[in-house]
Amino acid sequence: MKFSECVYLLADSKSRRSCFCTILPAALLLCLVFFIGNAFIAPDYKQKLSVWGLTGSLQNFKSNKCENRCRPYGSEALPEGIMSQTSNLELRPLWGFPEKDANSSLGLFAVAVGIKQKDLINKMVRKFLSSQFVVMLFHYDGNVDKWKGFEWNDHVIHVSAINQTKWWFAKRFLHPDIVAEYSHIFLWDEDLGVENFNPKRYLSIIKSEGLDISQPALDRYKSVELHHQITIRVRRSIVHRRTYKPGLNGKGCDASSTAPPCTGWIEMMAPVFSRAAWRCVWYMIQNDLIHAWGLDMQLGYCAQGDRTKNVGVVDAEYIIHYGRPTLGGMDGNETNSSVKNQTSKSKTASSTKQASSHRHHHPLDHRYDVRRQSYRELDIFKKRWNKAVEEDKCWVDIYQ
User: Fold this and answer.
1) Beta strands of the chain (E only): which ranges?
2) How far apart are CA 269 and CA 234, in angstroms?
3) Is 387 helix (H, G, I), strand (E, B) or coil?
């Protein structure tokens, strides 16, 4: 039926109903097309989806996806791609961009230093720098400028804080995210000799042996102080992981021993940690306990596996422990000069003689006080460990 015919029929009352029934389906179809099209071209996508009842579903999907993302605390206001979660200790120029070094740093060597031990430190620094290590000096005596005479002075990181231990420095300046680029962390004392030590060969050995926590062995003949049998070098050996020592009531060390100090143990004098092990150890270092006593007995929990296999002492690359008085102590020359001054002043009066005599036997040496504090911290650390074990119902002791 043509449109003109439809109009003509509308004039006829009898034909009006027939024409209306013909137009109505077409009109409804046009309205439906308009309705659907408007939903898809509306500027607000939420309005479009609300037509189909999908707004809530999309919001729930987006919310669940975002909630499952692990974001560092404090970064929630930033888009994820702009976050830089790690850093390093590389020195940067004030202008320009240095070329990427194909020989990137193998590890980090950090040591607490005093100017009195500059002869030993000079040998250490030269050896580690030549082996492509980043070197960081923790100055506990505040004498930073006195190191400027060494040619390597501007190539190392200097951090200074009076009378602080290497563990105090490490907790504050060696966060795992800061040192994440380095495969291994060397955290040493200053009174060590490295004539028979090669950093590159040492790294090669511990990687091939699978040692996540280690230390170089101590020369039994040249070392002044040897505190633990397991740290003494074994000749014709590359690595040893346990020691053998007779003892009563099961307190000795033999092939069946599975716990420190017989196995899975190193001394805190010259520890070396893998990147993964250091991340664990850093969390275990207590912020207010600066001597780290007691930490050695629990290092096995950070060994990334079996402590009887992943903790060891390297015999092929060994060091000398000179046992020099360092932090809290004084050397013999200073002691003698102090005594002479006190003796000359003591001639003025008998009371002064008595005071000088007392100082003669205790010449400003605080090593006894340091040792006493270390024992106190050991007791505190043990109690904290036991309390933490008791309160954490989800923690599983892998060595029990």
Assistant:
1) 107-113, 133-139, 157-160, 184-188, 192-193, 213-218, 239-240, 272-274, 311-321
2) 18
3) helix
Average pLDDT (35-63) is: 54
- How do the domains of the chain map onto residue ranges? 3-67, 107-321, 335-391
- Single out the residue of 178, 157, 59 nearest to residue 110, CA to CA: 157
User: Residues with Cβ < 8 Å from 338, sequence gap 6 or more?
Assistant: 330, 359, 363, 364
For the chain, percent of residues with pLDDT exceeding 90: 58
Check pLDDT > 70 for residue 342.
Answer: no
Across residues 336-354, what is the average pLDDT?
A: 41
- In three-state form (DSSP H/G/I as H, E/B as E, the rest C), the secondary structure along 139-164 is ECCCCCHHHCCCCCHHHCEEEECCCC
pLDDT tens-place string over residues 277-314: 999 999 999 999 999 999 999 999 999 999 999 999 99
Q: Which residue has 């929990």 as its token pair?
A: 301
Distances (CA, A) of 318 to 148, 195, 205, 288: 29, 9, 12, 32
Beta-sheet pairing, 213-218 with 272-274: antiparallel
Token duo for residue 158: 């200097």
Q: Say what the pTM is.
A: 0.76
Max avg pLDDT among 53-57, 59-63, 272-276:
272-276
Tell me which residue has tokens 């560092």: 72
Rounded distance between C-alpha atoms, residue 343 and residue 340, angstroms: 5
State pLDDT tens for residues 64-99.
667 667 788 888 888 988 988 888 888 888 988 877
**Residue among 237, 200, 209 at smallest CA distance from 316:** 237
Helix, strand counts (H, E) of the chain: 12, 9
Q: Could you write out the DSSP letters of every residue in 183-213?
A: SEEEEE-SSEE-TT--HHHHHHHHHHHT-SE
The strand pairing partners of 194, in sequence order, are: none
Asked whether 127 and 199 are in contact (CB, 8 A), the reply is yes
CA distance 178 to 173: 8
CATH fold of 107-321, please?
Spore Coat Polysaccharide Biosynthesis Protein SpsA; Chain A (3.90.550)
Query: Does the bond joining 199 to the residue before it have cis omega, within 30 degrees of 0?
Result: no
Residue 49 CA to residue 51 CA, distance in Å, equals 5
